[in-house]
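Researcher: Let's walk through a ligand-bound prediction step by step. First, I give you the protein sequence. Second, the SMILES string for pyridoxal-5'-phosphate. Third, you return the three-dimensional complex as structure tokens. Ready?
Model: Ready.
Researcher: Here are steps one and two:
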Amino acid sequence: MFFHFPVKHQAADTTIFSVMSALAQKHNAINLSQGFPDFQIDSDLSALLHEASVNGFNQYAPMPGLPVLREAIAKDFKARYNLDVNPETEITITPGATYAIYTAFSALLSAADEVIVLEPAYDSYIPNIQMNGAKAVPVKLTPATFAPDWPLIKDAITAKTKAIIVNTPHNPTGTIWSKADWEQLADLLRDTDIYVLSDEVYEQLVYDGKEHHSVLQHAELRERSFVLYSFGKAFHNTGWKIGYCIAPPDFTRAFRRLHQFLSFSVNTPAQYALAHLIGKENREPANTLLQNKRDYFNGLMAETPFKLLQPSLGSYFQLASYAHLSDMPDTDYAKMLTEKYGVATIPISAFYSDKSDAKILRFCFAKKEETLKAAVERLKNVEL
Ligand SMILES: Cc1ncc(COP(=O)(O)O)c(C=O)c1O
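Model: Step three, the predicted complex:
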């Protein structure tokens, strides 16, 4: 018998996130690598999950998602963005945003299509494009500031360009798109048939009084966009793996045509619980909590030899450079930090298809203060 599994993407078998988390565990290191909180979720959310199960919400949910959850999302978008989103025809609940990104690509892409990916980029984008038979066209963000490089993006557009994927607030750099950035993109795409995938999973984690600018607020771009969200980020429950896709009705139909044969539906009690927590008054805004953590972490980091890049304006992540300390490649350096000093981080080369290495590490600050403090105590000892 001869077994053969076709190669569907060119990424490694195990991602750097799994590698670093496993290394952290092996060396009993403090894990600031993978982006997940180590603090408790809202106790009301846990109670609602229990209530859902006791009340009999234990069977398959409708394919597009529980109506009560889709309605709660629509109400929330009206309240927070003054946007009208139709819960029947424009919102689909998914098992996480990664799945929603894959499904949107799958709905869109055919062989030979090209997708522009702005790098550094969340690691699922390029494999997901390749798994759908299409070609990823990486375009680097401007070094150091990580702003979109419009001339480079323009140059990357060809007759085969089917889509561009945007991520704001941005993992790993903590930058956010301004209204002007969306305007620039609209100018670039106006006379094309290029679609937009907008990954806005961190939309509720924006700091320093800044606003999140969604592609949904740009009427012209909204008509050509799939927008992907994750509850995990705003509710600190990444392990629930629930997200959603907002897209125009014909886009949503194409998305659901695949979704109904991929997962069909999503964990019912978790949908019930989230539906009843969204919009609850007096809930501590996630951005206040996370901004405090960023400030706490960045304040402590001043006592270490690392140099912070610009303060994160959104997401869970802060970048810091060690270029002045060592020439070691960033992956080796991150492994050394884990093994020798007991702190796990993510090397930024992992977010570039050509593994560009500017000697920068990503730190996740979505952690308890005691975790951040203990990590920094260890980092203070770093000499190389
Ligand atoms: C930019 C970005 N998109 C999507 C996701 C995945 O979200 P989910 O856990 O809902 O699949 C993450 C998680 O880290 C992310 O950073």
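Researcher: And what stands out?
Model: The mean pLDDT is 96. The longest strand covers residues 161-167.
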